[in-house]
Design brief:
Chain lengths: 140, 430
């Protein structure tokens, strides 16, 4: 007779089902079936995690668009720049945030404050659209 | 053979590699677009020497150039100098990895700026589209330029990537070796020394055998390659033949953790070095616990100034006798060994601790005699939680100097744009 021996192998884990509610003898919580997820600003404000960056506003040229000095901007770089969107741009090496206006004459960077002039992007100027502003967060 | 290969390509899917171009320099540029097209170098920890160069800086600065000796050249050629900002590079790297993983079936991060990926059941055309999509997305989302190489195996994907690097314009930064003809053409184009995994020593050995190009290597018989270059060489040959043999690494955890630093000044006092090494050991142990691993040995070393008169390099292994992740055990063992190897009368410039034999702590082998004191685990957990909440270094071991916080020399450090709220970019609205 040939005996074959098998070695007992264990991966070190024993799976035990986890009953989330616990097992109690009392009356079950009536709220259980209505449990909601807590509100997460991250989920609300960040649509595209890998493409989201934050920036701080310095100055008041976009005040009428609700962006004041010291406010926090949420920027989504995955969005395409479009006419009418508020964009973080780099114009000749400087970061600025303005509303984009594109018409047949060219590209304009439009401030939202009457005391500032709009900028027409000249042919010899270098404009990089860095990202699109999606939210403004202010401290009250 | 032809038919066989193309069938194989189709059945096994394809492998690709994404490689960020001049990654460190590109990360700096992502937040300073005005530096696009300008020469940039990034310095090592402590601003010692050049560890990364943008394409534009390459003609003027050698890799590893000592920073202070090249100050004049930096100025003369308008080179922008940065201290290494690993917090930023690490965050950008993980963003790149998540973008890639959206498009592929499997991903293997290979280094901070490189990742292999796998595509199941795709044609060469589809693979090329996916490669382009990855390249465009990384550029749009992060402002980082990447090169993508795709082929039937990892070694060939690397080769495709080299072609991209050589011909960025023609390939538009994406190249697929999709047919056997393209494969052979690429192999004939590639010098054997440039093949992934062929070291300098092997390249010399192969040149002696009149193998100059990768193609000639694939013409050698399997037996010969096996005898001369072991099974590793044979695997590489198969890979280059378009039969994927080098698989994906399953382990994503690091199997070596190290903290090594040059001192800002030379140090000869054992007490001072002990404090430094204790800090290194503690920092390694923290990283170890973070990835839920434990180690059973460590290597500690001490080096004098390489350019000084008496150059010494001292080092030794420490065996803990059991697997541990306790700062106390690791630091104690490392310091005991340090005192053994320390030599009086030298001035030291660099020290380091490297943890080895690392395993996940889920597979901890309990020992009847000489196992870790179970109280350590609880203590470490408390220490990590507190440090996490209140800032690194709030809670230290007593062999670390409490008051002293060692600062690296980082005179050109850019902000931590993505990981610290006080460091985000400021936008001029004036």
């Amino acid at each position: 007779m040939v005996l074959t021996f098998y070695k007992y192998e264990s991966n070190g884990f024993v799976k035990i089902p986890f009953v989330e509610a616990g097992i109690k003898a009392g009356f079950p919580s009536p709220a259980e079936d209505f449990q909601g997820k807590r509100i997460s600003l991250d989920k609300e404000l960040v649509k595209n995690e890998t493409a989201t960056f934050y920036a701080k506003v310095d100055g008041d040229s976009m005040q009428d668009a609700g962006m004041s000095d010291g406010d926090l901007l949420v920027i989504d770089r995955s969005l395409e720049p479009q006419n009418g969107k508020i964009a973080v741009c780099m114009l000749d090496g400087d970061f600025t945030v303005k509303r984009l206006r594109v018409d047949k004459d060219g590209v304009y960077l439009v401030p939202e404050n009457k005391s500032y002039q709009e900028i027409k992007v000249g042919e010899d100027q270098e404009l990089v659209i860095w990202g699109i502003v999606t939210y403004v967060i202010k401290k009250v | 053979m032809h038919l066989y290969n193309s069938v194989l390509i189709y059945l096994c899917g394809m492998y690709g590699i994404v490689d960020c171009n001049s990654f460190y320099a590109s990360c700096e540029r992502a937040f300073k677009p005005n530096l696009i097209g300008k020469p940039i170098v990034v310095l090592s920890n402590n601003d010692g020497c050049v560890i990364a160069r943008s394409k534009e800086a390459k003609p003027y600065v050698k890799m590893g150039a000592v920073a202070f000796k090249n100050k004049n050249d930096f100025k003369k050629y308008g080179i922008h100098v940065f201290s290494s900002n690993y917090t930023l590079y690490g965050d950008m790297s993980s963003r790149v990895m998540s973008i890639i993983s959206k498009y592929v079936d499997d991903i293997e991060p290979y280094s901070i700026d490189e990742a292999f990926f796998k595509l199941k059941n795709v044609s060469g055309k589809e693979a090329e589209l996916i490669g382009k999509q990855i390249k465009d997305d990384v550029m749009q989302h992060l402002g980082l330029p990447v090169s993508v190489g795709i082929a039937a195996s990892k070694a060939l994907a690397k080769l495709a990537n080299n072609i991209v690097k050589k011909y960025p314009e023609q390939t538009q930064n994406v190249y697929v070796i999709g047919t056997d003809e393209q494969r052979i053409k690429a192999l004939k184009w590639t010098r054997i020394g440039d093949v992934w995994g062929i070291g300098r020593r092997l390249a010399t050995k192969l040149k002696e055998m009149n193998v100059d190009k990768a193609y000639e290597f694939t013409l050698l018989s399997d037996e010969l390659v096996r005898n001369k270059f072991s099974v590793v060489g044979l695997r590489l040959k198969r890979d280059l033949e378009g039969k994927p043999t080098i698989g994906f690494e399953e382990v994503h955890d690091k199997y070596m953790i190290a903290t090594t630093r040059s001192f800002p000044n030379v140090v000869s006092d054992l007490k001072e070095i002990e404090e430094r090494v204790a800090t290194f050991a503690n920092s390694c142990a923290e990283k170890l616990r973070k990835q839920k691993s434990e180690c059973s040995a460590a290597y500690v070393f001490l080096k004098s100034n390489r350019f000084g008169k008496d150059y010494v390099k001292l080092g030794a292994m420490v065996h803990f006798g059991f697997a541990t992740s306790s700062s106390i055990t690791i630091t104690k063992g490392v310091l005991e060994k340090l005192r053994e190897i320390f030599k009086v009368g030298y001035t030291y410039k660099k020290a380091g601790v490297i943890l080895v034999s690392i395993k996940p702590n889920a597979s901890h082998q309990t020992r009847l005699f000489g196992d870790e004191n179970p109280k350590h685990q609880l203590l470490m957990r408390t220490m990590d939680t507190l440090n996490d909440k209140m800032g690194q270094g709030k809670l230290k071991l007593a062999n670390q100097d409490i008051k002293r916080t060692w600062k690296m020399r980082q005179e050109h450090l850019s902000p931590q744009y993505t990981t610290r709220l006080s460091d985000i970019i400021t936008i001029n609205c004036k």
